[in-house]
């Protein structure tokens, strides 16, 4: 066998679906974790500076955000390892399915491991759908504030009393109703929208939401690839049992 034929045969064993899913998963998780972490820090700064100047009013929110940042560290570490394991499992199952080596035989243990990854990937896919929906919430809140500021600046708005336009974050349940001032109106609201913390946090939340969506797509690709490979391996095992008799 020549070098060219050998390379073609080796390339035939590459799990391209798992490889694409791994790259997409790493990119999505990195965007979600990195941008989400920085955006949460900026959100705390905005709340402490403009909406809740008494520390005790937003103490619970601060603790929750810090906990979420620690969870982000765990998510990044877990998916880095899980992506590598799934890619390795993709190489194993692809080689077994395509029978690149004549002595390559599937075992019950290998099929059980493949089935476990199928089940776990389905569970993670459903969980990340929830994460994707949750990550859209801060995007919606920041968009409401940004659109209110844009409406005040618009020349066609014809606003007679700009101080009557307010954004009250207490109505979203972020901070308690007794928090002071709890809302921003008029020029104060415009100043908040012009701060670097607001601009950066808003766009980072958008990128984090996009990263969560990319991770969902990656897990869907993983689901299809692992389910297909597991089904073929199970079918091949039945063929092996039939040929023994």
Overview features:
245 residues, Myelin_PLP_CS, mainly alpha, Glycoprotein M6Bb, membrane, transmembrane
Oligomer: single chain
Stretches where pLDDT is under 50 for at least 5 consecutive residues are none
Q: Average pLDDT across residues?
A: 80
Give the beta-strand count.
2
N-to-C series of helices and strands: HHHHEEHH
Strand content: under 5%
Helix-strand makeup class = mainly alpha
- Provide a count of the helices: 6
Q: What strand line-up does the widest sheet have?
A: 1-2
Kindly give the count of domains. 1
Organism: Salarias fasciatus
GO molecular function: structural constituent of myelin sheath
Family: Belongs to the myelin proteolipid protein family.
Protein name: Glycoprotein M6Bb
Describe the structure.
By secondary structure, this protein is an all-alpha fold. It has one domain. The protein is 76% helix and 2% strand. The chain has six helices and two strands, in the order ααααββαα. A two-stranded antiparallel ribbon has the order 1-2. α2 packs antiparallel against α6 (196-243) and α3 packs parallel to α6 (196-243). It is elongated and about 75 Å long.
Concise overview:
It is a multi-pass membrane protein. The protein is an all-alpha fold.
Mind sketching the topology for me?
Elements: H1 3-11, H2 16-51, H3 59-98, H4 108-153, E1 166-168, E2 183-185, H5 186-193, H6 196-243
């Amino acid at each position: 066998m020549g070098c060219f034929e050998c390379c073609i045969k080796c390339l035939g064993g590459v799990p391209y679906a798992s490889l694409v899913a791994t790259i997409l998963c790493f990119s999505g998780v990195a965007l979600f974790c990195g941008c989400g972490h920085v955006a949460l820090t900026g959100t705390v700064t905005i709340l402490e500076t403009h909406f809740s100047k008494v520390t005790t009013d937003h103490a619970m929110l601060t603790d929750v955000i810090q906990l979420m940042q620690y969870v982000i560290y765990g998510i990044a570490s877990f998916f880095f390892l899980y992506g590598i394991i799934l890619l390795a499992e993709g190489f194993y199952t692809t080689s077994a399915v395509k029978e690149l080596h004549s002595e390559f035989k599937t075992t019950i243990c290998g099929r059980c491991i493949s089935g476990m990854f199928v089940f776990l990937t389905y569970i993670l896919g459903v969980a990340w759908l929830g994460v994707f929906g949750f990550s859209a919430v801060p995007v919606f809140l920041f968009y409401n504030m940004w659109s209110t500021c844009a409406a005040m600046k618009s020349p066609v708005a014809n606003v007679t009393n700009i101080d009557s336009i307010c954004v009250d974050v207490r109505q979203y349940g972020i901070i308690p109703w007794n928090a002071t001032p709890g809302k921003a109106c008029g020029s104060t609201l415009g100043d908040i929208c012009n701060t670097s913390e607001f601009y950066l946090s808003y766009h980072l939340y958008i990128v984090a939401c996009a990263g969560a969506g990319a991770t969902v797509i990656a897990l869907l690709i993983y689901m299809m690839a692992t389910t297909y490979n597991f089904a073929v391996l199970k079918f091949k095992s039945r063929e092996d049992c039939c040929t023994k008799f």
